[in-house]
TrEMBL record:
Name of this chain's protein: RNase H type-1 domain-containing protein
Domain RNase H type-1: 10-96
Record-linked SUPFAM superfamilies: Ribonuclease H-like
Species of origin: Hibiscus sabdariffa
UniProt-listed Pfam families: RVT_3 (PF13456)
Length: 124
């Protein structure tokens, strides 16, 4: 298990925040040398943009293109929608990240509140 948080200031909206989180997750997976990754998110519109073959023309297009350009680093990179009730660990990690001004990384562990939320996610 690995976890990370990246502070982002002045994010335009929730869609931008979700797209940036996906971008950071993919970048972190590359840095860790992961070959097969499944990214889950609770923004259906962002997930649809990531799985679509059509070029994105929204404000998110630079982020979507950057993520797509990194697919070659993986044997398998998939994106799937998970409703908010099954995504508590991500939200707990996001809240933890608000306490830090710099990126934070956890290897083979995660903050206790995130581990507890992940356990609840698995039960739902």
């Amino acid at each position: 298990m690995a976890a990370c948080t990246y502070p982002h200031m002045r994010v335009a909206d929730a869609f931008m925040a979700e797209a940036m989180a996906c971008e950071q997750a993919v970048t972190f997976a590359i840095e860790l040398g992961c070959r097969s990754v499944q990214v889950e998110g609770d923004s259906l519109s962002v997930i649809k943009k990531l799985v679509s073959a059509a070029p994105d023309k929204s404000i998110l297009s630079p982020i979507i293109r950057d993520i797509s350009s990194k697919k070659g680093f993986f044997e398998s990179l998939t994106f799937s929608f998970v409703g908010r009730c099954g995504n508590g660990a991500a939200h707990a990690l996001c809240k933890e990240g608000l306490h830090h001004n710099n990126p934070r990384y956890w290897m083979e562990e995660a903050p206790k509140v995130v581990v507890q939320a992940a356990g609840k996610d698995l039960g739902s």
